[in-house]
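mind reviewing both lines:
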Amino acid sequence: MVANHWESASKIKQAVSGLGNSRTVAQVHRAAGDKRQLVVAAEDAVEQVARFHDSETALVVMESALNLGVMTMSGIQMMLERIPESRARKLGCAAFGSQSGSETRVAHFMRKRGVKVVQQFSPIAGRFADMLIGESWILECDSVAHHMGRVEFENDRHRDLLFRSLGYEVTRLSYQQIWYDWENTQEHLIAILKQRRYLRRPSPSSIRTL
């Protein structure tokens, strides 16, 4: 949204909120550059998010930009050098291994709690999981709100069963749980972490080559 420089932040927020749904939260900040541009370059938009939004939102946008090919890792590094050091420190340690915003949110949540996270984990050749938590807890994160096709559904369940047969615990989080019921989802994830089962190695007796 483009606004005049004399318009207050509260007035702009009201205008934006009136255009969206009840979940829309307006964030107002002043950007440098040509105000006649209705659509700014992707790099500029990502930098604005990195400067003014929370670290989780910034990481989601940065990784999405990388996955979509609108920014490169060198471009991300140059951007981090331009933003305030306090912001860059929070974002510079990111692993950038996610393939969706859902993965980014969950991985960031785990890393903030000091938990080891391995993304795109492959316990067996040709089979990948979204992330491994600790030694033995595999987390899969649905990245789309709509229902997947039957083939994709069956493939996911086959992979889940395979990982269980190798001794891993498997939890699959839906898009709804990650984005629209995140508070409750976090509480359940924390409860599972407190059980500390993720620190156990997969049982050697159950590991086999398929």
Observations:
- The chain has a mean pLDDT of 83.
